[in-house]
Amino acid sequence: MRVDAITLFPGMIDSPLSESIVGRAREEGFLELGFFNPRDFTDDRHRTVDDKPYGGGTGMVMMAEPVYRALKKARKRNSFVILLTPKGRRFDQALALELAKKKHLIFICGHYEGIDERVTPLADMELSIGDYVLTGGEPAAVAVIDAVARLIPGVLKKEDATVNETFAGGLLEAPHYTRPVVWRGNKVPETLLSGNHKLIAEWRSSRAQELTAATIRRQL
Ligand code: 6GU
Questions:
Q1: Ligand 1 centroid from CA 85, angstroms
Q2: Confidence band for 158, pLDDT divided at 50, 70 and 90
Q3: At 50, which helix (H) or strand (E)?
Q4: Beta carbon of 129 within 6 Å of any ligand 1 atom
Q5: Cis (ω within 30 of 0) for the bond into 175?
């Protein structure tokens, strides 16, 4: 899959997505990540990308034209364009699965008070990662790209891929434990030490169901 981000601060996305599983997915060619900086699509000596809001008010607004030109450069025939904004549709696992089917995603990241409203129609979807306000779309792009990248076939090991189907089925996972058996007086559940694979599978299934029910109750 190819992903491009239109951002004034490419390092905010490139750096976190160079580590761990997604970093390896990029090295191995499962994910190609590119950047287009609106500042590179300006004509004036100061490379201006923002200006004061019409009607007054605090903060600055990103100008439409540099974003438009960057998008024009990034766009291919099969691109799906996502505008990151706190007023967008809430991101979830079901949408991650949909986005993982796309050949090319383009994320437009606003910064400051946002982007001139007239760029909104250029996007196929407005997306938010939750009901709080970030300094810009970049940390949201990181979260969305991470969630999508791990669903690309081959990115996770075979073992993990099944786990992932479980989550797609709407369940959270049972808790995990590793060595030592007793840590600061706290023992690993007996069933996990039993060596009885059928019993362990049943234990994990019921803990997953309890955890999912408790999480849904908490969110209501
Ligand atoms: Cl996509 N952008 C900003 N600036 N804040 C957010 C967000 C996006 N999603 C949640 N908060």
A1: 5
A2: confident
A3: strand 50-51
A4: yes
A5: no
